[in-house]
Write a structure and sequence with these properties.
2 copies of one chain form a homodimer.
Chain A (H helix, E strand, L loop, with lengths): L5 E5 L7 H14 L4 E6 L1 H10 L7 E5 L13 H4 L4 H10 L5 E4 L3 H12 L9 E8 L4 E6 L9 H19 L5 E5 L10 H11 L5 E6 L11 E3 L2 H28 L1 H5 L1 H14 L8 E4 L4 E4 L6 H16 L2 H11 L5
Helix pairs in contact in A: 1-2, 1-11, 4-5, 6-7
């Protein structure tokens, strides 16, 4: 199908807008010779970038619009006020089956609301979730954490749904099967955690869709022990932001240490490339491409501060999910074996 | 009072036991000429260390016992089986008013159970909490996070109690008054969060004991914006462990980057002191000395893997709280102005 070769990109989202998103999209296009792009955004900003980068115009459609949803816009009003925005235009491409997936670095709350509104939840899925990518430093691979903020509280059957969906998406993205799935908890012992987590553990351990490995603690999420880590949306949101905050704090401390000692200052020319390396490689949030899962269409959320490489990674995530037809995969698993309450 | 010059130390707890805890305690004693120590633990291990460090025996009492609570012991059975342990002996010194505070690097769950059992909760306090120290990299100061694991769920009045107690302890430890207090949440906007957090926000904003600054997100906890950050025990436990995990992951990544490139390998002799600096300064968990607050006595929990400097810092925390008579301070605030439901 043609739609599966087409990805809709909201080029206006994120801290840098078209100057980053357009070149990133062209990078991906050059790696995938059959890929076509729909670029939603301000044509007066997009066209010069296509020109400058000598883009293959045969494979690019520009959907012009003036409206942009900013990171400060309240998600609540977005369904009324955001209809003409680049974000809505991109999602509508998926809704109308003109594109196989959409990618945006815009306002997460707005993307979630618009995605649910336009694409609807997969039958049998209680709640959609946002799945974040976590770097595994030991192996250079990735783990996946969900939900990181589509929800606040979740029931044990919702957590079970996250585990099943997460395992399918993780297998698509990483190739690993069966996935090792864990529940994020305040201890590894089987007696630990809330009633919801205890009930979810019972459901997960009885499921054949994945390998349930039990509870995992906060300090283990980067260890690679689990491919998929499941928690409610509030806990996941705190987790992903705390890890970003800890990394930023550590970088600041490295810089303080360097500027404090003459010894390091003297060698700062040696250290500087190392730190630019670290900036690229280490920040968990840079392992870019959070996926909204549970919707009848593929929506990938890039971080707002993603650079060209980061944004192109988010588009690569979308391509993998298109190739595996992830929403259909989730729908057929849920239809074959619904969650029993 | 004599008891206020005496600190009881469980020297058997932690990854390294007396070889770290005894020299650390002696370091603190040398800085505080009137301080007396009660060292609870195996005398056959303590005595040679006192000898080797030429300790002032006039100011040291050794409470000999053979029993130790290990980190693997289940807290549940501890009230029966742990009675003769070094941890119980240390807490009993506070209970019997023979010491002004106790310090242990042992099993947190056991310390909490034994502390509550022996010392009892301050009247008017619904639930005790564990307060952790968070480094603020920008200023080199500290913030405090509670609860990090004494509880699982908490009600809004319990969170309010944590805020009031936390502000009093933080003022004792940092000297800052009034304290800026924030609630950890999934967003800064006033509409964000669970019903419990929303209700807690109303109580906090009406309280005159501290300056309530609103919600704080996970990435802001190291920023120094708040002196005291309040959350339920489950969220706090995840937060403190995720930040430790993120820092460990980043260190591992730095080491990978160095070993990967000939350029860095060549200069590794320059880099190595920097990394030993980082190991000491950056790890959030090294900012040592979590306090069990809300009990009728001072109990400071050192991290199990604290080194000599780290463990001595935990003892310094205890001294500060003795000097300010923190449990009495909390009791009088609670009696003067009980939490209204």
């Amino acid at each position: 199908m043609t739609q599966n070769r087409r990805i809709a990109v909201d080029v206006m989202g994120g801290d840098f807008g078209p100057s980053i998103t357009v070149p990133a999209a062209l990078d991906v296009m050059s790696r995938h010779p059959r890929l076509e792009l729909v670029l939603a955004g301000d044509a007066s900003k997009i066209e010069p970038l296509l020109e400058a980068n000598k883009a293959d115009r045969q494979r690019i459609e520009v959907l012009h619009c003036k409206q942009t949803i900013s990171s400060d816009d309240k998600p609540e009003g977005i369904l009324r006020s955001g209809r003409g925005s680049s974000m809505f235009l991109a999602i509508e491409q998926v809704q109308k089956q003109l594109a196989g997936a959409c990618v945006s670095a815009g306002n997460t709350g707005a993307l979630l609301l618009a995605g649910r509104h336009l694409l609807k939840t997969i039958p049998g899925i209680e709640k959609p979730a946002i799945m974040a990518t976590i770097p595994v430093t030991r192996s250079g691979g990735y783990s996946y954490l969900l939900d990181v903020g589509a929800n606040l509280h979740n029931t044990h059957t919702e957590l079970f749904g996250f585990a099943r969906m997460g395992a399918l998406v993780a297998t698509s993205l990483s190739g690993r099967s069966p996935c090792r799935v864990a529940l994020l908890n305040n201890g590894e012992e089987s007696s630990k955690g809330t009633a919801v987590i205890q009930d979810a553990a019972r459901l997960l351990s009885a499921c054949q869709d994945f390998e349930y490995i039990g509870f995992i603690e906060g300090n283990q999420i980067f260890s690679g022990r689990a491919d998929v880590i499941v928690c409610d949306g509030f806990t996941g949101n705190i987790t992903i932001k705390v890890s970003a905050g800890a990394v930023t704090a550590m970088k600041r401390q490295i810089q303080r240490s360097i500027s404090k000692h003459w010894y390091y200052r003297m060698f700062s020319w040696i250290l500087s490339p190392l730190f630019s390396d670290l900036r690229k490689e280490v920040e968990p949030t840079r392992y870019n491409g959070a996926t909204l899962i549970g919707l009848q269409g593929i929506v990938v959320k890039s971080h707002g501060h993603a650079d060209r490489t980061g944004f192109s990674r988010a588009i690569e995530h979308a391509i993998k999910q298109i190739n595996d037809n992830v929403p259909a995969l989730i729908a057929s698993r849920m239809a074959a074996d619904p969650v029993s309450h």
